[in-house]
Amino acid sequence: MLKITSLVENTKSEPSFICEHGLSLLIEWKGVTILLDTGASEAFLENAELMDIDLSKLDYVVLSHGHSDHSGGVRTLCHSTRRKFKLVLNPHFFDKKFKQDGEYLRYIGNDINEEFLQIENVTTIFPMLNTFTLIEGVSILSEFDAFAAFENESSDFVALRGGVYDKDLFAEEQVLAIDHPKGFVVISGCSHRGIVNICKTIKDRLQKPVYALVGGIHLMDSSDERIERTVAFLKEEGISVLAAGHCTGAKGIACLEAAGIEVLSLSSGTVIEL
Fold this sequence. Notes:
Strand order of the largest sheet: 8-5-4-3-2-1-18
Number of strands: 18
Shape: globular
Radius of gyration: 17 Å
Order of helices and strands: EEEHEHHEEEHEEEEEEEHEHEHEE
Strand content: 25-35%
CATH superfamily: Ribonuclease Z/Hydroxyacylglutathione hydrolase-like
CATH architecture: 4-Layer Sandwich
CATH topology: Metallo-beta-lactamase, Chain A
Largest sheet: 7 strands, mixed
Number of helices: 7
Structural class: alpha/beta
Helix content: 10-25%
């Protein structure tokens, strides 16, 4: 059985849990524990403690991309555990990240660098392939093909690469694809590259349909056309399980539900078993 626990998300399932604008998901699969993202702060650790979850036994920590609401808890995690886990980062993870607010740029990137990881003695893996086998049955995918032109919207996200500030294309974004008997379970932090592009890339490369989607589907602030076409795609693909939250946005979730797609909660403290 695949077990996914939402350690932190924008909302909470019970008053005792902490919520924040961020995401952290604990994945348990065939005796291996993988943490996808660490939220924006130490909140995911406090929620884990409330749920009697021991994060000192993590096997892997995978960071989906370089925004602070997904990597902000790394420092606290390193200081609070014995760091036996292996950290998995895309080679472009350390690109500087900004958001354009009117006439200025606001830094929204992570607060760790290579030097910090060396000082903390964190074993770090940088996959050099766009389809990387983490363990048997668990793949990490990146460099998603641009199948859907409507997902290439203009945005206010900016990246600094090679001394140049330009539109952020999220070269570092990576997702997990778990080979479940019913199809792939795709676990994403934000889906900045577009959930349609991500799903089509996975199906194209791994030659198996997507059974479930869990995580953020970045429809927040998207155009009506993009939301409508995304919903139509997910309905046509017959995605059996959709647990969407964080950056999906209230409008996106409402449109999914209006189309007859059941959207499961990802609130802090929620447990999903497949």
